[in-house]
Design brief:
The chain is mainly alpha-helical. The protein has 13 helices and three strands. Helix 1 runs antiparallel to helix 10. It is globular.
Length: 330
Amino acid sequence: MRDNDSAIAAGGIAVDTDTDTAAVTVTTGTTGTTTRERPAAPRATTSTRGVLLAALGVASFSLTFPATAWALEGMHPWTVVMLRSVLAAVLGGGALLALRVRVPERRHWAGIAVVAGGVVLGFPLLTTLALQTSTTSHAAVVVGLLPLTTAAYSAVRTGARPSRTFWTASLAGAVIVIGFAVQQSGGAPDTGDLFLFAALLVCAAGYAEGGRLARHLPGWQVIGWALVLALPITATGAAFALSAEPLRLTGHAVGGLLWLGLGPSFLGMVVWYRGMAAIGVSRASQLQLAQPLLTLVWSVLLLGEQLPPAAPIAAVAVLVCIAVTQRTRS
């Protein structure tokens, strides 16, 4: 538990989990400070929990493109993007307010701004624009490059040096994804692909910064503050979009928008950042190699798209890459 976890209490609780024992400092308003030690959670348990949390995040994200396609049946791109962010901000900001969470320190706001620009605004907007011309299955395999771009950004940003085996497996997964995408598009990237590649860059920055911040703040607070920071833009954008773009509230459109606002925009990010904080940005990012394959399944079940014949082969190959990266120290 970090000190921001106890923002609603009269005192503070600080836990140092870098060693085999955790020093627990309890501060009271009148009696001073008492320090005692207790055994920390085993590293293996922490790693397993981190993998499970990150995997839950990936499962949530895998539904993003199908939900966006549903929302676009009754709304235009700017309406979808702005309303989903406003809904998520209401949820995240409401949680921050209800729990009386302290405002982050000044040194954290630059990273929060990167999360807001990449995850709250950039990625949703660029992918929504891409889905006007691309199918969800095609978009899913292109965004399959996100683990590699996230790991690369994290290595540059934090100075981390993953092993050669890690990078080899990551590159192999990326090559599989690229080959799959090129085979499906006939080797001719279009405007939608350009939007998707731009989305990769901004989202990688947002993921890596969020994972770094989640070592200092609880993951739900990282995305919560990012949503609140972006709220003046998203609320204004939503007002303009609703006045300028036609709206048709079908069941699919409403359901897709609600999932986008509550699932991947907030709840999914909470478990994702918490997982990255536990196992590291590079390792967690490789779990996303499974995301395009999950999205392919959802596109068939929810949208009736035809599953590409190469998908099962790609699925096995990508899962092998995931297994290798998860067994490699990052």
